[in-house]
Amino acid sequence: MPIILALLSSMVWGLADFLGGTLSKKRKAIAVIGGSQSFGLLFASTLALIFGLWTWDSTVWVNGAIAGAMGLLGLVGFYTALATGQMGIVAPISSLSAVVPVTIGLVQGERPGTLQVVGIAVALVGVILASGPELNGKVDPRPVFLALFAALTFGFCVYFMAKGGQINPTMTITAMRATQVAIVLVLALALRSLGGLIKKDIPLLATIGATDAGANILFAFAASLGLLSVVAVLGSLYPIVTVLLAWWIHKERLIPVQYLGIVVTFSGVALIAVG
Fold first, then answer.
1. Contact indicator for 39, 193 with CB cutoff of 8 Å
2. Among 52-56, 129-133, 158-162, 234-238, whose mean pLDDT is lowest?
3. Three-state DSSP class for residue 192
4. By three-state DSSP, how is residue 154 classified?
5. What value, to the nearest 5°, has the Cα angle with vertex 231 and ends 229 and 235?
6. Which of 123, 115, 133, 20 is nearest to 77 (CA)?
7. What phi-psi label fits residue 5: left (phi over 0), alpha (psi between -120 and 50 degrees) or beta?
8. Residue 9 phi/psi, 5° resolution?
9. 238: closest CA among 19, 29, 2?
10. What is the pLDDT of residue 125?
C-alpha cells in the first residue's frame, strides 16, 4: 500500500507542477503559489473536517509549519525554474530531493544498501548530463541552480512532512498550507500586489491547489505506512509526468545528451528505491 500511495502522489504532483509551471510563465511564481495554496488549504482542511481528523497536536503543527516554509521556498524556486527553463531539464533535477531524507536517515543511524549508494551517484551523473547544455554558457544557468535549490528545500519539506504524517497526515498538510498562505498573504499586503493574478486564473489555481494538496496527503499517508527512505524516492518520480506533459502539450524537444541525462537520473532514483 505505501508504494502505491507514493506512486500515486508522484502522478498527481507531476500534474500539479506542470500546471503551476505553465501558469508561472504568465504570472509571478509567488502569486501562483499563494493563490493555489489558498485552495489547497481549503481542500485539506475540508477533508480533515469531513473525516473527523481535525485535531490540535503541537508536534503535527510544528512539523507541518516547517514543512510548509521549506515547501514554499522550494515551490518559488521550482516554479520560477519551470517558467524560465525547459521543464524536461528542471523537473528531473528537482527529483534529487529524495537524497535529503536518505542522507538524514544515514546521519540518524540508517545504513543505505549498496544499490542506494550507487543510485545516488548515478542520479548525480544524470543531473550533470541533463544540465550540461544549460551550463555551457550559451543559455541562462539560473533554472538549473533554482531546480537544485528546489530539490534541497523539497527534501527537507518531505522529511518534516513525513514526521508530522506519522501522527496525522491530513492535519500535517493543513498546517503546511496554513503556514504557506500566511507567509504569502503577509508578502502580498506588504507589496500591495496580487502578482498579476486575475479572475480568469481562479479555476486553474484551484486545480493546482487541490492536486498539490492531494499529492501531499497521499505522500504523508505513504510515509506513515512505509519506510521513508523508499517512499521518499518513489514520491520523487513526479518529474516523469511533468516531462511527458511538457513534451505533449508544450512540444518541448531536448538534444540526445539531455534525454540520456533524464533517463540516467530516473535510473539513479530507481536504484535508490530498489536498494
1. no
2. 129-133
3. coil
4. helix
5. 120
6. 20
7. alpha
8. -60, -40
9. 19
10. 78
